[in-house]
Amino acid sequence: MRRKLIAGNWKMNGSLAANAALLNGIKAELAGQSVACGVAVCAPAPYLAQCQSELSGTTVNWGAQDLSVHESGAYTGEVSGAMLRDFGCVYVIVGHSERRTYHAESEQLVAQKTVRALQCGLTPIVCVGESLSEREAGQTDVVIGRQIGAVLAAIESADLAKIVIAYEPVWAIGTGKTATPEMAQQVHQALRVRLREKNSQAAALVQILYGGSMKPDNAKDLLAMPDIDGGLIGGASLKAEDFLAIVRAA
Ligand code: PEP
Predict the structure, then answer these.
(1) Quick one: fold of 5-249?
(2) What is the reported pTM?
(3) By CB count within 10 A, which of 61, 81, 148, 196 is most buried?
């Protein structure tokens, strides 16, 4: 039985004051409760120290939104996996569609970043997803197969159980449009079939999250699907009450 995971992706939002209010709201609700699902927030790099000081000793984990493919050295502006570990990160998002689109991250680079995250002891949340035109052209399976295929080719079979995958249809991110539970389940199931080719035992353990306008009012139905093991939450992770409502749905 896979434990569900609800992970917030704050993107480039927040401030010390706003984060403190958000994290205090989350902590106040979850303190002293046994939470059935895993909970995490993925913050902009400058706020990871704040997450570490606010969330240490709680049931909420934290992570980053990207990492450098390099180990260390002359890479101005980059943040290494070891640095993220220094600040207590458990997770790092890899290959978010906004990075693939705005920073031209290739499938190969995403695969290499996944490997780097694993080497650093981080759990990569590997994002895959098709654009609207790709879906309309009937290319969803091909695109997702290519994206996940690059990652599977790069990692050791024994490491499969150490990654999290997020299916995020690009047309659903930040648009208010959500894949129906059935549409999402179909892709999640296809992803799991693909994972089995790499390591059938581990494939049953990998958490496959859905992301794309998951909100309190649609979370329950999405999370009820057999291969949807949680959510990667953008907009709704910025409001404690919305994020917590999704945690409760899980
Ligand atoms: C995301 O960016 O990972 C995401 C799922 O965003 P939203 O929930 O706002 O669609």
Answers:
(1) TIM Barrel (3.20.20)
(2) 0.97
(3) 81
